[in-house]
Design brief:
This protein is mainly beta. The protein is built from no helices and eleven strands. The strands form two sheets. Strands 1, 3, 4, 5, 7, 8, 9, 10 and 11 form a nine-stranded antiparallel beta sheet that branches. Strands 2-6 form a two-stranded antiparallel ribbon. The termini are far apart.
Length: about 160
């Protein structure tokens, strides 16, 4: 019998927010305090109070960076949001290797910038940018693989969480 419906036999090699390998990976739980905004898996998040995390805004700094939202399917949700839904907790990777989508061409071992400008907020880049494409350098983070704009690449990060 043929497979029917929305199922696939060949799955993607990686997904945004997926832990990249078996090396040490530290995670923390954070609350998406927004009442309306889902945070996509693989997005960088910054502090939102003591127990929360949110997508960055233009005034966000590297010191506020908490980590990357982990791709996971083990939470009971009422919608298929593709990430951390409003008013629910999420898992944030603070240390380890994780897949993220990049906004421009990056090279392995290059520094990682978190987009805080209005365009593609929470995604990652290899350049600082300005204005709507501004980014902040994330200390102790680097690209493990290279790629072109829109590609999934691995980053390694070590953040206090």
């Amino acid at each position: 019998m043929a497979v029917s419906g929305g199922y696939t036999i060949n799955h993607a090699a990686a997904l945004a927010g997926m832990v990249a390998d078996g090396q040490l990976c530290n995670t923390v739980s954070k609350l998406n305090k927004s009442t309306t905004v889902s945070i996509p898996w693989g997005s960088g998040v910054v502090a939102d109070g003591e127990d929360g995390a949110k997508l960055p805004v233009s005034a966000s700094t590297a010191a506020q960076f908490k980590g990357v939202v982990k791709y996971e399917l083990n939470r009971a949700h009422t919608s298929n949001s593709g990430g951390a839904i409003p008013q629910y907790d999420m898992t944030v990777v603070t240390t380890g290797a994780i897949w993220v989508r990049v906004l421009d061409t990056v090279a392995a071992n290059a520094p990682v910038y978190l987009r805080v400008g209005a365009t593609d907020v929470g995604d990652f880049s290899g350049i600082a940018g300005t204005g709507a494409t501004a980014g902040v350098l994330i200390p102790n983070a680097k690209f493990l693989t290279g790629g072109d704009a829109g590609d999934l690449v691995k980053i390694s990060l070590v953040v206090g969480g």
